[in-house]
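thought: fold this chain, then report.
action: predict
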Amino acid sequence: MIAGVCQGLANAYAWDVVWVRVITVLLAIFGSGSGLLAYVIFWIVMPDEPLLLVPPATPPPPTPYPPTS
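observation:
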């Protein structure tokens, strides 16, 4: 959705993110806003996951020239 709360919960508990999002939306609509309130609380309480950046590619070492005769 907005802050990645559903994805974070799904990753933490090995759940399918689609079901977490469906339950969150259903609670937000039919739960008198309890899903929205829980989402905001989780947004504040859950720690940020660090970004996993790919290290920059280093060029291969130069190959020596074959000896000339």
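thought: worth noting. Residues 17-30 form the longest helix (14 residues).
final: tokens above.
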